[in-house]
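Reopening this ticket.

The earlier resolution said the output was attached, but the attachment link was broken on my side. Pasting everything inline this time so it's all in one place.
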Amino acid sequence: MLLIALFIATFFLAYCNGANDNFKGVATLFGSQTTNYKKAIGWATSTTFAGSVFSIFLAETLVKSFSGKGLVPDEIANGTDFHLAVAIAAGLTVILATLTGFPISTTHGLTGALVGAGLVAIGTQVNFTALQKSFLMPLLLSPMIAIILGALIYALSRYLRVYLGIQKEWCICAGQIQQIIPIPQPDAANILKCITTADVAVDSLDKCTQRYRGKFLQIPSQKLVDVCHFMSAGIVSFARGLNDTQKIVSLMLVGQSISVQWGSLAVGLGMAIGGLLNAKKVAETMSKKLTAMNTGQGLSANLVTGFLVIAASRYGLPVSTTHVSVGSIFGVGLISKKANVRVFYQILLSWMLTLPIAAAISGCAYWVLHR
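Inline output:
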């Protein structure tokens, strides 16, 4: 019975992960108006699922890292009730953030849940040294590195663009709007009339799109940037599926009740459904509120995010896609002077609360399961 509950809880965690994380790889596509929300989430879903399938062959290191081993004794880490408490706590923490529109880290939620259940199980005998070395340091350093790299990469790309003579241009959006105006009458009364007038918008982020003109290697600059932007977004989403699937599927692998292959497919499916059904609020935060951006800026941020997450998968470090994605976008925004510092501070606060909330829920869940 506990194994069935564990499978359901882990699938729920995968759904929550997809709802909060799937759009992060394509947030810059939507934010820069390169494409609309529907196409962006479709691209994110397909590439994330591909990463989930591919993770079966490359990410065994992360399965071991997030099984709980190293933090608590093996007899505790191998328990179904331990994994169930962790899955419940991480899922509830992530869905709470999703419903409020905050992009948080599932990795952070899992880390807090492991600690909370571990503290209830064995008290202060939890191996905090392993926690600091394997979990906390990468989670603390990854957003800082992403901010720095995001700023540097965008500054370099902007210098190369100017050096190569590729210029920016804004479109002029012309159309018609309807206005209601008062028309004076002889008896001093006014009547209201609806008239249509011309409307021209220049340099308006909600109506116009900044584009690049000129050519690079005989290819139109804007087309080249758009293609690279889509590819970079796909790389980020693929890397996220590669990195996150094995963190979640590790919770299912108790007593070899399910294979890594089938578990990964189930997690990938849950992530896809969650992204398709429940990603809109986080999408607004990542794409619109954190910083304004054009396609070149989005491309720079995605290249940094993809590089860091793939490197983390290769070396078994539990780096959060959320942290590096937010960090790289914010770093680009700092250079372009369009970053919304207030929103960034709110996101930082949500990151700080993720660990204790997940730990508290996990501890309570583990205590209830042992009553």
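Reporter confirms the inline version is readable. The beta strands are 167-170, 172-184, 190-202, 210-213, 215-216, 219-220. Confidence is low (pLDDT under 50) at residues 203-207.
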